[in-house]
Amino acid sequence: MRRLRQSIDWQQEIDDALAILGMAFDCHRSVLFRMRDISGQGFSQTIFSYWIDRTVLGQEGRPTTIVKSMIESDSLLQQLSEEARRGTVFAGHTRELSGFLREDFERQRIKSFISFPVFAHGYVWGTLAVNDCVTERNWTDEEHSALSMVALIIGDAIERSQTEAHIAETFRTTMLNAALDGMVIIDESGGIIEFNPAAERMFGWKKHDVLGRNIVTTLIPLEYRPMLINGLRSYLESDAGRMIGKRFEMNGTNAKGEIFPVELTISEVNAAGRKLFIGAVRDLRERRRAEEEINRQRDRLHQNEKMAAMGSLLAGVSHELNNPLAVVVAQSTLLHEFAPDASTKTRAEKVRAAAERCGRIVKSFLGMVRLHPTAQAETDLNQVIRSALEISAYGARSSGIVVETSLSPAALPVLGDADHLTQVAANFLVNSQHALASVNGERRIKVRTEQTPSGLARFTVEDNGPGIPKDIRERIFESYFTTKPVGVGTGIGLSISKSIVERHNGTVWYEEGDTGGARFVVELPLVARSLGEIAGTAPKSTNIRTALIIDDEPDVAASLADILELMGIKSVIHTGWTEAREGVDRLDMEIDIVFSDLRMPGASGLDIYRELTQKRPHLARRFVLVTGDSLGARAEFEEIAPKLRPLLMEKPFSTLDVRGALAAVTDQIGAERS
Q1: d(Cα 63, Cα 46) in Å, to the nearest integer?
Q2: What is residue 366's predicted lDDT score, i.e. its pLDDT?
Q3: What is the 3-state secondary structure (H, E, C) of 177-232?
Q4: Alpha helix (H) ranges present in 478-572?
Q5: Comparing 293-297, 357-361, 670-674, which segment has the lowest mean pLDDT?
Q6: What is the pLDDT of residues 430-473, one digit of tens each?
Q7: Which of 394, 386, 401, 389 is nearest to 465 (CA)?
Q8: Is pLDDT of 207 > 80?
Q9: In what order do the strands lie in the sheet with 112-120?
């Protein structure tokens, strides 16, 4: 290409130039087409010069001359003809074409093609094309840039050969002004001699302000100046520049002194015995912002996938834990009921309380990691805080942290999702534990619930740690903003907590604690009806005498039967639906209520519900599903009409839970009869 630029007669060099171009692109044909009006033929595309790889194409690779009659008879050729006159780049794969052009390209064995316009004197003189005749390829940005540069060099050679300098200057000016990238041209000393409108917009300088100034001290930040100065000096001395013709990223600086990322491609031209360097500069700020957003979305998706995987894992764990816990709770309840002395009663009560606590912790963990919509229900804020304290208790104890609680003596009923609110409180408690890790001496967390004078339910979590610096307090609720070390925090906890509180029509904020530590405050609307009124509702008597229990865990089924026996209800136990179906059909027994495990080998609890209620529709309102993962069953439940959904009882169940299920069934039976 250097010979082409320096040659007096460019036509003597074009054959060699096309051969070099084709081999450099690892292609099999390169062609210079001439576009013009031919007397008697109209507008045509003729072959000016071409090179083919004869080891691949033999003698078959000669390009086709396209004349006006062909163009007029083919719609794609008409479109491409108009685009060629406008200087549009034409690139793609042969299989994407149609009509004459596809047939012609297949005959010539072309797989991939790319052509750039060759401009001379302000109009399209012709096109420069490269073809791959072996593989389909997607042309890279570097290949686009290289072919574009060669086309420019050929156009420059054509203009020089015809010595129409004024036309060439018009073309050059038009190209510079129309370029979307900033174009900066410098001489050998680094002085700016051209600065197009795109560069003015990018750097904030007017052309007349920078002409003659050194590019290094005007547009380049301090840390990049030695590299460019040494690179230019090395190139001028040895003619071997590592940056010439390559695309690389660096930083630029604008008129305000702001530093921003740019992509730079440097090319060299010779003009009147002088070496000039053309820098094509592209502002990367928008691209970087888009990349950052993509990374944020990817991180968010990764976190959601981890939470979903953890939810699936805990669902299985909870099922395996809740079955033995159900036995422990039920048997300790029975032991308490029939204990021969006060000491045994006390010990049985301790066992039952510990087992129920284990069940609550499993349920709280499962509720936090399950990805489920907010379920609005009346819940006591005090109980939410107790659940969060149970979840985070081990971390506090193992770190030597004292947790002080001051809970409202009266219930604080709020309308919301207890699992999600527990997640908020637990997140504040865990954050406080992390903040206290670096504190020497006493480590203390204070948790408080209260009703505010304005009638809101409030809870606060405060620690005596280092607190949060003032300059970043406004950002702590932003997604993926974290001050924790790598591997400790994800930066989404506070953001999620804020969104949960706002979905509950509440507010959350940070303030400095009494000792300089962090204090997080959450306020939620109170509901008018107190939980005490609900708890004070007297239990209703039932007319249930016979129960069918289906559970693949015999100990769980037996424990439930023991509790029902205390209430005067006889039970028939089966470990699977096949056995239960045969027993029900054979004895034609009367069943007042059915308790069925949800997850069992063979038929699930919902399968049993559907089959049994088809034969005995009246049991639809007398069916109770027993499960250790009510959240996991939510999707299956939503497939059933609300009025036909069975009742749910969670494991581990207590005597109170069983009594509540019996009362609910009695209410439904009463509603049917009325």
Answers
A1: 9
A2: 62
A3: HHCCCEEEEECCCCEEEEECHHHHHHHCCCHHHHCCCEHHHHHCCHHHHHHHHHHH
A4: 493-503, 531-535, 554-566
A5: 670-674
A6: 889 988 988 888 999 999 999 999 989 999 999 999 888 887 77
A7: 401
A8: yes
A9: 42-52, 29-38, 123-132, 112-120, 90-93
Token pair for 148: 């574009």
Dist. CA 318–CA 651, nearest whole Å = 9
Place of tokens 């379920």: 375
Q: How many other C-beta atoms are found inside a 10 Å radius of the C-beta of residue 317?
A: 15
Type of residue found at 217: T
Concatenate the DSSP letters of all residues of 317-354 into one string.
HHHHHHHHHHHHHHHHHHHHHH-SSHHHHHHHHHHHHH
Residue 102 Cα distances to 56, 98, 116, 361, angstroms: 20, 5, 19, 69
Using DSSP's 3-state secondary structure scheme, residue 653 falls into coil
CA 106 from centroid of its chain's CA atoms: 43
Whether residue 213 contacts residue 226, with contact meaning beta carbons closer than 8 Å, is answered with no
**What DSSP string runs through 423-440?**
HHHHHHHHHHHHHGGG--
Average pLDDT over residues 623-643: 74
In tens, the pLDDT along 238-281 reads 655 566 778 888 888 999 989 999 998 888 887 656 778 888 99
What's the pTM value of the predicted model, to 2 decimals? 0.42
- Residue 673: Cβ-neighbour burial (10 angstroms; 0-12, 13-18, 19+): exposed
Provide the token pair at 584. 């029900």
Contacts of 633 (CB under 8 A, 6+ apart): 598, 625, 627, 648
CA atoms within 13 A of residue 331's CA, in its CB half-sphere:
12
* CA distance readout (Å), 126 to 25, 35, 88, 117, 596: 20, 5, 11, 6, 82
Residue partners of 636: CB distance under 8 A and separation at least 6: 606
Give the amino acid at 441.
G
Among the listed residues 638, 627, 629, the one whose alpha carbon sits nearest the alpha carbon of residue 367: 629
Q: For residues 50 and 62, is the Cβ–Cβ distance under 8 A?
A: yes
Q: Compute the average pLDDT of residues 120-134.
A: 87
Cβ-proximal residues to 450 (8 Å cutoff; 6+ apart), any chain: 406, 408, 412, 458, 459
Instruction: Look up tokens 């204090």; give the residue.
Output: 519
The beta-strand segments (E) located in 497-622 are: 507-512, 518-525, 546-550, 570-574, 593-597
Distance set, CA 439 to CA 277, 443, 460 (Å)? 59, 7, 21
Q: Helix or strand or coil: residue 53?
A: coil
The per-residue pLDDT for 489 is 47
The pLDDT of residue 538 is 45
- Give yes or no for a contact between 276 and 5, defined as CB atoms under 8 angstroms apart: no
* 3-state secondary structure at position 100: helix
Contact 432, 463 (CB under 8 A): yes
Q: What is the pLDDT of residues 54-101, one digit of tens each?
A: 888 876 666 777 767 777 788 888 888 788 777 788 999 999 998 888
pLDDT reading at 405 higher than 90: yes
